[in-house]
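I am still learning, so can you show me any protein sequence you like together with the matching structure tokens, please?
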Amino acid sequence: MSDNQHYFDINKNTWNDKVKVHSKSDMYDLEVFKKGKSSLMSYETKALADVSGKSLLHLQCHFGQDTLSWSRAGAKCTGVDLSDEGIKLAKSLNSELQLDAEFVCCNVLDTSKHVTDMFDVVFTSYGVIGWLPDLKPWGQMIAERLKPGGAFYMVEFHPIVWMFDYLDNKPVMKYGYMQDEVIYEEYEGTYADTNSKMISKEYGWNHGLSEVVNALALAGLHIEYLNEYDESPYDVLPDLIKTKSGMYATKDKLYPLIFEIKAKKI
């Protein structure tokens, strides 16, 4: 991990800045969330259904809205994130809303060094694995934190989405589907507030579906399903069109925008 520490440090600084912007953004709509609106989307609520009474570990939780939404649904939650500003806000929201979630600031790959409990559910979603250089230790950590019989669920943007450069608002295919080299982008604003003056400096890595599946399988998890969808719950890419279902899709639907995986620890 030490070889990548510089990348992680830059990303942490950017995410600390993003917390300040995102917490005031319409997309995260913090005031409505505080009044009781869940931040969870239909993919994850359908996949995990009733979490009441279950222990749930949320990886890369940002400032904790989804973690706290699962907490409201009856789960005993722990959220992990790289950003200390994100964890600080998550803890504040947890206290304000009188919930019982716990939050830990660490690199997600180091989770097992900081969190020793085992969980019924491990969850992660939307824009998470691209911050990790190698998914094998990620898969191993997930298996370590799951109880026998426990479920891992992730919903994430499809790897095809990350083959494009979106910085000039017109998607241009630029990056390899299975590219090993780190990708650096620097731009003004953020997906939740394109008008923000903050400068996002980001290092990321592309991971094909086979890499995701194999990282989980290699760790001993049983893959229950892998689904791909051409509709996203988030309007975060250029020129997406709102569908009848309330999701967002590309005009021609030539490629998937989202995938989900559910796996079980036997």
Helices lie at 5-22, 30-34, 42-48, 65-72, 84-96, 111-114, 136-145, 209-218. The chain has one domain: 2-265. The first strand starts at residue 55 and ends at 59.
